[in-house]
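Subgroup meeting minutes
Present: P.N., E.W., G.H.
Scribe: E.W.

1. P.N. recapped why we're keeping a running log of single-chain structure predictions: easier to compare across weeks, and new members can see raw inputs and outputs side by side.
2. G.H. added today's entry (141 aa).
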Amino acid sequence: MQKALGERRGIDIWLSRLLRDCAQLFATLVEGVGVLIVALAVPLAVGRYGRAALARTRPFPPETLRLDLGRSLALALEFLLGADILRTAVEPTWEEIARLAAIAAIRTGLNYFLQRELREEARRNAEAGLCGPGPAAVAER
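Output recorded in log:
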């Protein structure tokens, strides 16, 4: 009987370690996606900023530039939050829980203000008689 319990505990420990290792690996991959989004979005925004400056675009900088960059950063935060949730779900520490709460608060605030900006852009475009909410809001759909 003791031998069977010992084997059961050994399997439980092995499965627990496997689950933890898989969650850590997947969390690292998800985190990498978030970093990749930022690594792509920032140079694109800088390029658009430069083109708008050279073309003397008005208003400067274009509102869609900031909204598109904000949307990309919000998406990256979603991936980073997902990675932290994976890490916290397996073996939560107080530090991981605090980081998860901070990222969730930042993401929520960023998304709130981004959505408000998109609604404002759609309202301005409607008042100006433009069709639709504009390129930044169309990408949101």
